[in-house]
Amino acid sequence: MNRLKVLVADDDPNVREILRIFFQSHQYDLLEAENGAEAVQLVESEDPDIVILDVMMPVMDGFTACREILKKRDVPIIMLTAKGDEFDRVLGLELGADDYVTKPFSPRELMSRIKAIFRRMQRKAGIEEESRTAVYDFGELTIDPERREVVVNGERCPFRPKEFDLLVHLAKSPGTVFSREQLLEQVWGYDFYGDIRTVDVHVKKLREKLADLKRGYIHTVWGVGYKFEAVTSDAAGD
Questions:
Q1: What's the first-to-final CA gap in the chain, in angstroms?
Q2: CB count, 10 Å around CB of 182?
Q3: Which residue from 41, 54, 151, 181 could staple onto 10, CB 3.0 to 4.6 Å apart?
Q4: Distance, CA of 101 to chain centre
Q5: C-alpha dihedral over 224, 225, 227, 232, to 10 degrees?
Q6: How far apart, in whole angstroms, are the C-alpha atoms of residue 123 and residue 193?
Q7: Given this model, what pLDDT does residue 83 score?
Q8: Residue with more model confidence, 1 or 173
Q9: Roughly what angle, to the nearest 10 degrees, separates helices 62-72 and 36-46?
Q10: What angle do CA 145, 171, 216 make, to 5 degrees?
Q11: What is the pLDDT of residues 175-201, one digit of tens each?
Q12: Do residues 168 and 143 make contact, with C-beta atoms less than 8 angstroms apart?
């Protein structure tokens, strides 16, 4: 297996040095950026396998960098956020980040998050291979897993990678109720360290993108979780 190339963007040289020493000792190649603008440039020139972005950086903050990077590359992103700052965590996930780590953190924890993301990607690739011929067609909504394409009222609608994975997972089992914990395990990976609000954030984004449809598709089952079902707006009740 090729060595993973990790880009770390943090304006604290001590953080970068600690990660450099730890990752190099575990055969990871480390790229370093002092701010978000440098991170965006390095993503284009070096094509890293994963990006670690501190939220608070000069020149360009982590949120802006996350947005700009995902315009150019479909690359996993982990945000470094202030301890206990829920707003930063939720905003990062809404922008398309895959995970977050709160400061202070240990390099070992960060490496575990990275490994979890790549295990998740491998499982997703296997699932996509198994179901590549399946197309979910609900008339006003069509989901094509092989092309990773969603068509809403005849128009292609862009979805972030994790949003698409969640939609497909729900759509392939209509009527099945999934708890938030089950969705974290089955879509994000069994050892995903995020909390259940991660699921809620992504469900909110799905609903926003499907809001113009006549039928409701993503339904809340109060006290349990979520299900996918094509129900008219009057009958949905949630």
A1: 47
A2: 16
A3: 54
A4: 14
A5: 90
A6: 17
A7: 66
A8: 173
A9: 20
A10: 125
A11: 999 998 888 888 876 555 566 788 999
A12: yes
